[in-house]
Amino acid sequence: MSDGLALSVVIPTYKEVLNIPHISKAIADALGDLNYEVIFVDDNSADGSVEAVSKISHQYPVRICVRTEERGLSTAVIHGIEQARGDYVVVMDADLSHPATAINEMLRKLKANEADFVVGSRYVEGGSFDEDWGFFRLLNSKIATWLALPICHVKDPMSGFFGFKRSNMPATHMLSPLGYKIGLEIMVKGRFSAPAEVPIHFVDREHGESKLDFKEQILYLRHLRRLYKFKFPTASEFLQFGLVGGTGFLVDSFFYWALQVFFGLEHTTARMISFWPAVTWNWFWNRTLTFSDRNQSGGKLKQWMGFATSSIFGFIINVGSYHMLTDYVPFFTETPYLALVAGVLLGMGFNFMAARIFVFRKLDEEMEKETERPDSESK
After folding, report:
1. Is pLDDT above 60 for 371?
2. What DSSP state is assigned to residue 101?
3. How far apart are CA 281 and CA 5, in angstroms?
4. Considering the entire predicted model, what is its pTM?
């Protein structure tokens, strides 16, 4: 139910008491007579934010929700959206970096069905940011933006200023926010088909301190990895599997060389031994990274043995296909290196599918097996 409200503005806060009156006034000046509400979601700042909202609540349609058991910008935004009563929702920062004057254009695009998700953008024509941004800050922003472009269709996916129709909000159980870029998560998992951007001038905060630090940047990379896996599940896992395999090749080469140089082993013996630390390396990092969201039960030893077995078969396919191609296909006889590449890809493809299907099963498949019961047991 919207209770006649056209818009809910959700603003996450933590120690933003000085900005609360200013952002409230800016929104009121921009929206005029529009029937709207502002929801501040505060992570128990204990800095007077509750009192600040109470003091201006007779003047502006504002309220505050204080969270005492959860922390984090992303979950605060989700909580605020769940509390929203407006037909449309706009999310923005409390630090006055996002111009409230852009809300009207965002809302117009949504109401006119010109877009189903609107971003306040620094990187479209007419958008800008403060000139005192240093080179490294700008570079950091650009790199983070470029990394996100393949999974969305806007030029400023890093923006924390966005709006959408509340009924289009993806189910909250689908969201697994990590870090501060909840807008990107909602845009990707909500599968919005017509995103658009509104140019804004992004200004630096005047009061309070920025919450963006190195830890948040690491969380962003982890979050981005999750979203890639959501958007391109098989391709993302295959790429990570290949990267892990590349580092495993380095481990294999190191042991192959070290066993000969330091222990005097014959190269064939060294090759047979070096395979095992490389397999263990690949198993550990595929377990930790590539398939971290899959089933990890059943014992590490059993899982390692399954991975090692599939790797042996993959190695046989690798070598066997190399010999087949170079022995029977004239093109590869003349270009054996390409046969080597083909063998590696075939072997890796087999290893990937075996690991994906048999070693690291999906969680839902395992749960389904565990919950299945014979008919005789249910009688």
Report:
1. no
2. G
3. 56
4. 0.74
